[in-house]
Amino acid sequence: KVDHDVCSNYGNWLYSAGIGNDPRDNRKFNMIKQGLDYDGNGDYVRLWVPELQGIKGADIHTPWALSSAALSQVGVTLGETYPRPVVTAPEWSRHIPQRPGGSPHPRGRRGPAQAPAQHKDRGIDFYFSRKKDA
């Protein structure tokens, strides 16, 4: 099924872009949470992103959080067969399961997300804040 309600989609895209009136400050669209809420098993992502088809379950929403060994098993190499994230938001970390050694845990133990090295101290707030000297 393809979701195509033109008015609703345009409105949602504008809302997620931060355009329009909203009394809430620092409103952010959390892609990881939305993916888990509306595509928990990752079937929609698997349909449209064939590079990730081998990743089982909800892990498909955060492939950069998987170990190199897990990615290698499904033929994914970050930066080669699938891009590395440009930025990871601190808010995503509570939706990314972690094992004690830092690799993801399929049962849902929570921990901090690993940001790409070039953006380690820059969450999504850096890119979308009004103050650029932060």
From TrEMBL:
GO terms for molecular function: damaged DNA binding; deoxyribodipyrimidine photo-lyase activity; FAD binding. InterPro entries: Crypto/Photolyase_FAD-like_sf, Cryptochr/Photolyase_FAD-bd, Cryptochrome/DNA_photolyase_1. FAD binds at D3, H4, D5. It comes from Edolisoma coerulescens. Keywords: FAD, Flavoprotein. Belongs to the DNA photolyase class-1 family. Its cofactor is FAD. Pfam families: FAD_binding_7. Binds 1 FAD per subunit. GO terms for biological process: photoreactive repair. Residues 118-134 have a biased composition (Basic and acidic residues). This is CRYD protein. It comes from the Eukaryota. Residues 2-93 form the Cryptochrome/DNA photolyase FAD-binding domain. Residues 88-134 are annotated as: Disordered.
